[in-house]
Design goal:
Layout lengths: L1 H15 L10 E3 L8 E3 L1 H9 L3 H11 L10 E3 L3 E4 L3 H13 L16 E4 L11 H19 L4 E5 L20 H12 L1 H4 L26 H14 L1 H15 L3 H25 L6 E2 L9 H10 L3 E4 L2 E10 L5 E7 L7 H14 L5 E7 L3 H14 L7 E7 L2 E2 L16 H14 L1 H4 L7 H22 L6 E2 L2 H4 L7 H25 L14 H11 L1 H11 L3 H20 L16 H24 L9
Parallel strand pairs: 5-6, 5-11, 6-7, 11-12, 13-14
Antiparallel strand pairs: 1-2, 2-4, 3-4, 8-9, 9-10
Bound molecules: arginine.
């Protein structure tokens, strides 16, 4: 591309006069495959100042352009674009560079300037069930972290668990119920004192509420039930409510017994989260750094806001008012950073976190993977952080929002009986369905249980991940086991089978080769002949561009689109070499060694590129299914 850039500038200079030799040739990657590899739009932009018709300017440019060593003859298209198609020899060279990269990264270039990046993802709330929103955050965040690492950026994975503030036990982080923390702790101390003191361990599901006469006692099989039980007591029992109020004071003043109970609640929840993480094979470097971590830093956040003249008092609360934010009645909308009772907010913690990440972590880019509903929160927090100087302009703060997970009917995602779907159950179901797949359980398969379990995990969990990632993350997505496990369409099973198929061809070819060819056959040499080969080659060579697009706009769906198209190109390539009468495809036929070697080199590279992408997406490619 750099070479083309130079040649175009030289041509502009000789066609239109020396001063044009430094103008921008407006070289871009072709928008469609039919247009070739690159497109130059300079003639369109220069026509006016030159007083020429754009097509004439383009024709003049072509005349002066010397690229025959790189491209086929340039074509003027549409109103005056220049389409440039790289010569096959050049494609072959680039393929060889990709294939020669033994590190598994298929020659994806590293970023010129590595940026230390914090990816804040997953981030569920203590004493609450992880929900499908956290599933999306986990899957998307994990993928982005891997992709950024591939590009050479040092990545810090942070799990900003809601373990303290307003949202501790409240339904939403912005409209919080302050009672959450105190009542959960009170409930735990009263019903399971040994657990509260840390003397015993328990799973959340074991923490049964002591049945109270006259009170409906939901059986707490999970965090939600535990929360509900505590809430019911809080509403109905005077003593309990009073004890809870004392608890919050005790906790804030650092009372040991209180803190121990809080710690054991956190530990119980975290044990539940880590089951989901290991089922999802989330990167083990995801560090839990909950909201409580920032507690000691909150007072100084307030001091700095005060010093910066950003704080205002409103109804006893301390707030920041930003221009342009108003409520429905047109009144200025405050960002509350400290409530009248002295309590801090979700946003206060995020301000402290931004400062810590910029200063201590030395992050240059901070990504927040949460549902789109938190867009306003992040917009405001980012703006305050800038004004207060918590993050200099050299630190990019980016909210990476995603849409809702919906049921197949487009409504709220629930179980048949109307309950919130538990993630652990959902993943179990994915495994069960992948296993029940006829091909896996079919009689006469010689593979053992270990093989079946591994395939079921790759397919089942992979399907859940892929379905999420393949959607543009901004859209709401409808959760459907049938769709995500389908063997056709842009799904994990389709991609996994496509990969296994390529590997199968390679294996059979290798077996055939060992019969008829000497060892010299192994050197990869690309020779592109048929259009199907050239198409496949072009798609393979797009990899670097796709990766850097995703690095910029953080849309993993582009990776899925890319491998889906790649699998299609591979199929067409394969069919083009499949003689009408099976079973001996030309790929395998002991034809003259050189063409076979060239075809196999394409197979090999396709497999490597598919495997790399599947790994970035968090899906284990299988050699055989
Ligand atoms: N715990 C929050 C939730 O469940 C997400 C936290 C996201 N990260 C952050 N730094 N605010 O919605």
């Amino acid at each position: 591309m750099a070479q083309l850039h130079e040649r175009l500038q030289a041509a502009m200079g000789s066609a239109f006069g020396g001063s044009y030799a430094s103008s921008d040739p407006m070289l871009a990657v072709a928008t469609k495959r039919e247009f070739g590899d690159f497109q130059c739009n300079a003639a369109l932009a220069l026509a006016k100042p030159l007083g020429m018709k754009p097509r004439d300017a383009a024709a003049k440019l072509v005349e002066a352009l010397e690229v025959s060593d790189l491209c086929e003859a340039p074509e003027v298209a549409g109103p005056g674009f220049l389409n440039l198609r790289l010569r096959n020899a050049l494609l072959e060279q680039q393929l060889a560079v990709m294939a020669a990269d033994a590190s598994g990264r298929c020659a994806v270039p590293r970023a010129a300037e590595p940026l230390r990046t914090v990816v804040d993802y997953s981030s569920p709330n203590i004493a609450k069930e992880m929900h499908v929103g956290h599933l999306r955050s986990t899957i998307i965040g994990d993928t982005l972290a891997r992709l950024l690492e591939l590009r050479g950026h040092p990545v810090v994975r942070l799990n900003h668990v809601g373990d303290w503030g307003t949202q501790f036990g409240s339904p939403s982080p912005t409209a919080g119920l302050r009672g959450g923390r105190r009542m959960l702790i009170t409930h735990l101390r009263q019903t399971a004192p040994e657990v509260a003191s840390g003397a015993a361990e328990a799973e959340l599901s074991d923490l049964a509420p002591a049945p109270r006469p006259g009170l409906a006692s939901p059986c707490p099989t999970d965090a939600v039930a535990f929360y509900k039980a505590a809430k019911a007591r809080f509403d109905a029992e005077e003593d309990f409510a009073a004890a809870s109020r004392r608890e919050v004071v005790a906790l804030q003043s650092g009372d040991e017994a209180s803190l121990a109970a809080w710690r054991s609640l956190c530990a119980t929840s975290e044990a539940a989260f880590s089951k989901v993480y290991s089922a999802l094979r989330v990167d083990e470097r995801l560090v839990t750094r909950g909201e409580s971590f920032y507690n000691p830093r909150l007072p100084s956040v307030l001091e700095d806001l005060e010093a910066g003249g950003l704080l205002q008092e409103s109804d006893g609360a301390r707030c920041v008012f930003l221009e342009g934010y108003t409520n429905r009645d047109g009144e200025p909308l405050p960002v509350i950073v400290q409530k009248s009772d002295g309590g801090f907010m979700y946003s206060t913690t995020d301000l402290a976190a931004i400062r810590q990440r910029a200063a201590d972590e030395e992050a240059r880019r901070v990504l927040y993977v949460t549902d789109a509903g938190q867009a306003l929160h992040f917009q405001q927090v980012f703006e305050i952080a800038r004004r207060a100087g918590f993050a200099p302009d050299s630190v990019s703060l980016e909210h990476v929002p995603f849409g809702l997970v919906q049921g197949e009917d487009g409504k709220k995602f629930k179980t048949r009986s109307g309950e919130t779907v538990k993630l652990a159950d959902l993943l179990d179901e994915a495994l069960r369905r992948a296993r029940a797949d006829a091909r896996l359980e079919a009689e006469g398969r010689e593979e053992g249980e270990e093989f079946v379990a591994r395939v079921a995990a790759a397919v089942g969990i992979g399907a859940v991940k892929y379905a999420d990632l393949a959607m543009n993350r901004q859209s709401n997505y409808r959760f459907s086991f049938d769709k995500m496990l389908s063997l056709t369409g842009n799904t994990a099973p389709y991609m996994l089978y496509a990969y296994a198929r390529v590997r199968g061809i390679q294996r059979r070819a290798a077996a055939a080769a060992s019969l008829d060819a000497p060892a010299a056959d192994s050197a990869a040499g690309f020779v592109l002949r048929e259009p199907a080969e050239v198409n496949l080659a072009r798609q393979l060579l797009r990899l670097g561009q796709v990766v850097s697009d995703v690095e910029r706009d953080l849309l993993p769906s582009k990776l899925c689109e890319y491998i889906f198209e790649l699998a299609g190109d591979f199929n067409r390539f394969y069919e083009a070499h499949l003689p009408s009468s099976p079973p001996a495809p030309a790929l395998l036929r002991p034809l003259n060694a050189a063409p076979r070697r060239a075809l196999l080199a394409l197979c090999e590279l396709t497999a490597a590129v598919l495997a790399l992408n599947l790994r970035i997406l968090g899906i284990e490619p299988l050699e055989r299914i």
